[in-house]
Structures are given as structure tokens and as C-alpha cells.
Amino acid sequence: MPVTQFAVTDTYEYLNGFGGFKESEAVEGALPLAANSPQKCPLGLYNEKFSGTAFTAPRNDNQQSWLYRILPSAAHQNFEPVPESSSESLTSVTPSFGKHFNAIPNQLRWDPFDFDKEASWIHSLHLVAGAGDPTMKQGLGIYIYATGTSMPEKTAFYSADGEFLIVAQHGVLDIRTEFGKILVRPNEICVIPRGIRYHVTLHDNEPARGYILELYQGHFRLPELGPIGSNGLANARDFQTPVADFIEDYENTEWTLYGKFGGNLFAAKQSHTPFDIVAWQGTFYPYKYDLGRFNAIGSISFDHPDPSIFTVLTAPSIPHGDGTAVADFVIFPPRWLVAENTFRPPWYHRNTMSEFMGLIMGNYDAKGAGKGGFQPAGASLHNTMSGHGPDMPTYEKASTMDLPPTKIGEGSMAFMFETCLMLGVTEWGLKTCQKVQETYNAHSWGPLKVHFKRPDSSRGVSNGEKKNGVAQKDLSSVHDL
Q: Which residue numbers belong to the known binding site for Fe cation?
């Protein structure tokens, strides 16, 4: 069955389908008819336009929604910087990327990241790597979240810096957004666009952990299918958007709104809930997706295809040319391998793209598991043009094994954040977290054996080696004649 068997049932309602126009009302008649901004909105509501792209963006790319709410989002006190000593502060800010990122060519791998039982959502966001600058709306940031408590009541958070792609690895996130409620379970992803306010509650107080890619430029979309045709990979019908759901809390109350802006955290007080949208309509909203519904495509003859064949979502980088992404979200789900006379794991390669990988569950077929290996809740980074590929045991097994049709990855799910940008690593990611496997390179590729055997008829010789009793330099002089 192409769905994940979840331990927790999702009872929330959703609208199905990726992208396009959608509308939802929690109270019948809350949406105005044939107008976005009537002189008086139904039910005494305020209208508010929420723009994810420029007004003049092409119709197919334009992302705007109209919100009909009890009070406008502008009604709050001034934002003030959140002190680093606060329990709600960011653990790693990103105001000056050149100073906070270490761009190094070494292959990196991390042991599983720890839970922080005291941290709620905001304080659990640990910036690991990234490139660019959110103030210029260029680049991305990669986070680990590991939260042990729900956000305090009557608080909300949003990022003005970018779009959050959340990959749940452990524990359930119960997210109330302005647009409605989303339940995000392990092996699901959730995308919360720039500026949307939300509150995160843990299910049954169980800690939660996972990965986040914050996209500073553009938006995620489904990749083009090309010769694949009209269906396959992540199908549009399997994406889910929340339905309108609101709170009435605007008398004798105080809420705290936290905003991530330019990599720093600010807070403002307001005398009403931010979750008061009674109805909405448009093309700009949050959504989620079950990775178990991915329809994997692969080779049925020979050779291992490029990992791009496993792309779930992509964010194109227009300046870098057609087919190039500032961020691709790629998964490696359970699938059949049938290629004949083929080295089936990923081949050794160097890539102009940078590859940050994580493991949600199970084992990854190109790397050893267990302590010191590639483990669930761990990660790896193979930066621009840094060589990588299967470790020695994987290579030795895959290059000598019989090749019957084989189902791999049962109970497993690995993923990759791939980008055309050169990724830098934060001090937290390199040192503070104390999770870097210092022997990753030596453990994976140091033991590789030389299997080369020169045939007797070979014309080539090593420098200075004699062949048929004549030194290489002597052969050269003969050829000169």
C-alpha cells in the first residue's frame, strides 16, 4: 500500500491537491461572493491580502491569498529583540553569513542529534549549514530541530526569512497555523510558507526531532516529469492543505508573537489571538505530504539513474540556468532494484551540487549502519565537488553479489537536501553539537582496495618501469627514431 502506516491517526480535515486555487471557510457565508474586498465583509470580518510573490508575478507563479479574520495581523505592539538568555531565543542566529559559516571541502557526517527535553520549538532550532543571506532573499539554511516541550500557550512563531520545509524524524508535531491545523508525523513533511504564523504542540508530550530546510528564495514546486509522462514521483493529489479553523480570543488576553527576521528573533505582544482567520481563499498556504505515497521510478534494464529521479519538490534557481535548483528535496524510499550487470548502489561521484543527507528511519543502502555509521537522526554533507560514494564494505558486496530482483529499503527512508550553492557549516554544527564523526572519511573510503590488474598485453607502463626488458625512457627513444 503506497501510504505510511502511522502509529498516530490524523483526524484533521484537509483539502487535497498541490498548488492552485483553494478556498475554505470555518463558518458558512464567511467568504464574500464575487469580490475579494467588499465595502463590508460578511460577519463583520476584516479582509487582509497575504502575498507570497510580487503582485505582478506571472499568473502561473503568482501566490496570493485573501484572509477574512476577526482582527488584522497588523494589530500588535512594537517588536523587540529577544535576549539570548530567553528560553525562547534562537540557539544560532544568522545575521552575517560570511562570519557564521565555515565553507570547507571535507566530507562530514554527524551522529544522531540529541533531544532537548527543556526546549520548545523556537529554541530547538539548531542551524547546521547554509548559504546566502535571508535579507537578500538568496540561499537557504538547514536546521535540526529537537524539541521536548510544546510551545507555551498563547504564543506564535513565523519566519519572514523563508519557507520552512519540515521533515519529521521522531515524534508528532501538532501545528496550528493561521490557515488551519496540520498533524505532521514521522515520514511526513510539511511546508510552511514565509510569514505564516503557527504554534507547535507535541503529541502526548513525546519529544520530537527532525530536519528543516529554510528556503530564502522562491517557492517549492513539483518537478517537471518530462519523458516520465503525466504521473509519477510525488503526485499532486497526495498533498494536503488544512481547512479554515479559528479561535475566538480577543478580550482580556495577551499573546506573544515571535518573528524570525534577518536571522534574528523578535517578539511583540498583542491583545488578540493570531489564529482568528474564519475563511480564506487563494494560492498561498501551508501543506503536508506523506513520503510513503511517493511513486518511485527507476531503471528496468541497466545502470543506476541519477538521484534526481527521486525528487519530491524543487525550487529552481533561475540565475544558475535551466534545470538547476537552489534546493531540491529528494528521497530514497523502499523500491525494487532489477538492473542487470549493474553496480546497484549510488556510484562514486563529485557533484557541482552540494548534498546534505538525513535518515528518517532504517538503513541507507550505500552506507554502513550502526554506531559510527549513517544512523537515523544523523546527517551527512558532501559539499560542492567533494568526492563521495559507497563505503568499502558496501562496494565489495555490491560488486560481487548475484543480481536477482531485490526489494531494498524496507522500513527505511533517507532524504537529501541538494543545492547548487556551496554550503557552509555553523560553529554549532562543527563543534558545539559534538556529533561530527571525525573518522568519517577514513572509515568509509580509507580501506578501499586496489583491484586493478594490468593485462599482459597492455601497452601502458608505469613511470620508469621496464617492459620486455626495455626501460620506458628507452622505449621513448626508440619511438623517436
A: 349, 355, 388
Show binding-site residues. 349, 355, 364, 388
Give Cα 392 distance to the centre of its chain: 28
Told to judge if 304 belongs to the known catalytic residues of this protein, a careful annotator would answer yes
- Note the pTM of the prediction, 2 decimals: 0.93
Residues 232 and 218 placed together within one structural domain of the fold:
yes
pLDDT for the residue 456: 81
Residue 38, pLDDT > 80, answer yes
Q: Which of 304, 382, 451, 479 is catalytic?
A: 304
pLDDT of amino acid 321: 85
Would you state the pLDDT for residue 474? 47
Rounded Cα distance, 361 and 5, in Å? 13
| Domains contained in the chain, number | 2
Residue 326 and residue 261 share a domain:
no
Of 290, 322, 354, the position where a domain reaches its end is: 290
Instruction: Please give the residue range of the domain that contains residue 436.
Output: 292-444
- Which one, of 154, 158, 182, 178, lies nearest residue 246 by Cα? 178
> Can you say whether the dihedral through the CA atoms of 331, 333, 337, 343 is positive or negative?
positive
Do the beta carbons of residue 414 and residue 332 sit within 8 Å? yes
* End position of a domain, from candidates 290, 307, 328: 290
